[in-house]
Amino acid sequence: MIDITQYLQGIYEDLQSYVDNDVCLCKFKELNFEAGAIPDYTDINIQQLYLLRYAFAYAFEYSRMYLDVLSQIDDTNHISVTSVGCGSMIDYWSLIHALEMKSKMDCSIRYVGIDIIDWNYKIPQRQNDEVHYLIGNAADIFTNNSQFISDVYFFPKSISEFSDSELNAMANSFSSKKIQKNRFFVCISLREDQGSMDRDMQKTKCLIEAISKNGFYTKWPYNRYAYYDCNDGIVSLDNDFQYPQGALQFVTNLNMECVNYKIQEMNCQSDCQKYLSRWPILRVKHIRYQVIMFERMS
Ligand SMILES: C[S@@+](CC[C@H](N)C(=O)[O-])C[C@H]1O[C@@H](n2cnc3c(N)ncnc32)[C@H](O)[C@@H]1O
Predict the structure, then answer these.
(1) Which atom of ligand 1 has the smallest separation from the CA of 91?
(2) Among 92, 167, 195, 264, which lies 20 to 30 A Cα-Cα from 129?
(3) H-helix or E-strand containing 250?
């Protein structure tokens, strides 16, 4: 499997080629999540900068979530996952990484990623895995499915982006359709700040209530979450996470790559430096997640 350093290096080289064409970089200021903003993920350059800023930390976070799942399942020869709002399938990479950490590389994966956008930079499929990428609104896909067959339903930093009506449609499906497994997991990666996290966990509550109506229980309270009580660098916890140096320099000085900066040694606006020199997430203090196990009530 591609390592995270190579993955980011390839994206960095592509974004570097784009800015080498002397372009104005103001559009990258839109890549922020302030006040509930959602970036334009349809733009390949926004995808590139998004991945350079966040994929490193998210890949680590999701691998810890999958390690939690793997420690609670009996059959580690096969695992089936539905990833809702999967983007470039970083969580598929994380699952493979978690299996490698547990020396379970021969566990085969059935991975169904759902996203409304057809992302670039999808994680390449491992031999012997079954991977499907469904492009569409997850609410419609849930509404049209006939039953739930996965071991894991994973929401990789996506739950916040579903409207209440989309979430209700998914919850209705979970409450009314056949769930094949006697035990399955809903994994939710949450946003960090308290207000956003509280809003995300209201959606968790809605999903737990829906699944409980369908004859399953969980011991996980909707407002419990896992986090790190330290601010260690990710690399100190997992040596496979080496952020490529050239990419780091590039991302943290992006404002200087703007054509207007190159000509006038000044950015277009006073906020360019603030928004265009943001560091990628390299530490664990932002991590918040839920790994919720459901079991069929006997
Ligand atoms: C913050 S991004 C996370 C992407 C990826 N999971 C990651 O970890 O980088 C949220 C994703 O949810 C997707 N999304 C938002 N609403 C959706 C919907 N109704 N149906 C399917 N995907 C949706 C977006 O297109 C986007 O790719």
Answers:
(1) 8
(2) 167
(3) helix 245-252
Summarize pLDDT for 116-148 with one digit per residue, the tens: 999 999 999 999 999 999 999 999 999 999 999
Give 245's contacts (C-beta < 8 A, 6+ positions apart): none
Question: What pLDDT, in 10s, does the model give residues 147-203?
Answer: 999 999 999 999 999 999 999 999 999 999 999 999 999 999 999 999 999 999 999
Pocket test for ligand 1, best of 115, 123, 140, 289 (most atoms within 8 A of CB): 115
User: What's this model's pTM, rounded to 2 decimal places?
Assistant: 0.97
Cβ < 6 Å from ligand 1: which residues? 41, 58, 85-87, 90, 114-117, 137-139, 156-158, 161-162, 166
Atom 5 in ligand 1: which residue has the minimum CA distance? 87
Tell how far the Cα of 74 is from the centroid of ligand 1, in angstroms. Answer: 30
- Please determine, for residue 272, whether its predicted confidence score (pLDDT) is greater than 90: no
CB of 201 closer than 8 Å to CB of 222? yes
Cβ atoms < 10 Å from Cβ of 69 = 20
Which of 3.40.190.10, 3.40.50.150, 3.30.470.30, 3.90.550.10 is the CATH number of 63-228+286-296? 3.40.50.150
> Rounded to 5 degrees, what angle do the CA atoms 165, 116, 147 make?
65
Ligand 1 pocket test, pick from 161, 167, 170 with the greatest ligand atom count within 8 Å of Cβ, gives: 161
Provide the residue ranges of all domains of the chain, joining segments of one domain with +. 63-228+286-296
Q: How confident is the model at residue 10, as a pLDDT?
A: 98
Give, using CA atoms, the residue closest to atom 12 of ligand 1: 85
The H-or-E segment that residue 82 falls in is: strand 78-84
CA proximity to 61, closest of 281, 275, 259:
281
